[in-house]
Design a protein that fits this description.
single chain, alpha+beta, 2 domains, 7-stranded antiparallel β-sheet, two-stranded antiparallel ribbon, 4 helices, 29% strand, transmembrane, Histidine kinase
Length: 173
């Protein structure tokens, strides 16, 4: 009889722990991005500092638990031809999944548009956190998406490889 009680206790504990872990990963750590996130910026060819572009309807989420949990959606009247002439583009960009409840950001749809050429990816900002760049993708119809991605320094630092002199100090961000 006592074995059944112990077994039931273990099962209930596992269910509670699983439900808590699920909640924390999908809902618990995310929050709306700070109110000061009111502009979308891209890196121009002519400068080392990102500059704002026209953007409306900005929705963003972030989490303190990781610098790569940032996601945002927006719209812009700026056309892709003008953007490609002015701002640094990226050949390869793979959007990260967002929580299902943040329904404006569908990583698979964005990836399909990037692959089809109906969306283009741009460098939004280098080193928003140590080893993390902000990536901005914009579609032909003016929908935009933002996420964070590890850059070369970040990948080296987080896998334990020596970062070298080309990477900034961790304390500078």
């Amino acid at each position: 009889m006592s074995g059944k009680i112990v077994g039931v206790f273990i099962m209930i504990s596992a269910l509670i722990a699983g439900a808590t872990l699920y909640y924390l990963q999908i809902y618990g750590f995310y929050e709306e991005a700070p109110a000061d996130f009111t502009e979308v910026r891209l890196m121009p060819y002519t400068s080392d500092a990102p500059v704002p572009i026209l953007a409306e309807n900005i929705q963003a989420i972030d989490a303190d638990s990781s610098p790569i949990r940032f996601r945002a959606c927006f719209t812009t009247p700026s056309g892709l031809p003008m953007l490609t002439e002015t701002y640094v583009g990226l050949d390869r960009a793979v959007p990260r999944n967002a929580p299902e409840w943040f329904d404006c950001f569908d990583a698979q749809e964005i990836a399909d548009e990037l692959k089809a050429g109906t969306a283009l990816a741009f460098l939004g900002e280098k080193n928003v956190a140590f080893g993390v760049d902000r990536i901005v993708a914009i579609t032909e119809d003016g929908r935009g998406y933002i996420w964070h991605e590890l850059n070369d320094c970040g990948e080296k630092a987080y896998d334990g490889t020596v970062t070298g002199e080309e990477c900034p100090d961790r304390d500078t961000n």
